[in-house]
Design brief:
The chain is of the alpha+beta class and about 160 residues long. About 40% of the residues lie in helices and about 20% in strands. Strand 2 and strand 3 form a beta hairpin.
Length: about 160
């Protein structure tokens, strides 16, 4: 049985490890090698330490981080969402899923949808009228999960090497 709860400072190391897994090992498995090389980070440790410090300092206000832990208290998944305000956008405020990851052995058990459901509740409590999320185009598991939760694909991004 999994327990989904709001992030606490004691979860920092576990969430940072999962962030590094998402943007390192997992990203390598879902992206073709040429695209992985075009998008890899110089220093995952430093990049995500800085990013997550910002998220932590705004927890509950501009950001919400939720974790899924197993019966042993091990964090096996997380989701980070933020609220975006755009004065030109008719649908503002908008919930934005920043990062979302579940360890391989706990996928396809409802962990990801449980995390998302709790985050959606928070988005609604913040007055959000829609939720945006993105994923790598070749990440079929993520695309399927989004679709099952009612998301529609609407945008394509491009990247080009300039050397």
């Amino acid at each position: 049985m999994l327990h989904i709860r709001e992030y606490q400072s004691r979860d920092r190391v576990a969430v940072l490890e999962l962030l590094k897994s998402l943007h390192g090992e997992y990203k390598r498995t879902v992206l073709p090698p040429d695209l992985f090389d075009l998008t890899k980070d110089r220093d995952l440790e430093a990049a995500f330490g800085e990013y997550f410090s910002d998220v932590e300092s705004h927890q509950g206000r501009d950001f919400m981080t939720l974790v899924a832990e197993d019966t042993d208290g091990r964090v096996v998944g997380f989701i980070i969402g933020g609220v975006e305000h755009d004065r030109w956008d008719e649908w503002t405020p908008t919930g934005v899923i920043e990062d979302w990851f579940v360890v391989d052995e706990r996928r396809r058990e409802g962990t990801g949808s449980g995390l998302y459901g709790r985050l959606e509740e928070w988005f609604r409590s913040q007055g959000c009228r829609r939720v945006k999320s993105d994923t790598w185009w070749s990440n079929q598991l993520s695309r399927q999960a989004h679709s099952k939760l009612g998301f529609q694909e609407y945008q394509v991004s491009f990247i080009k090497r300039l050397d």
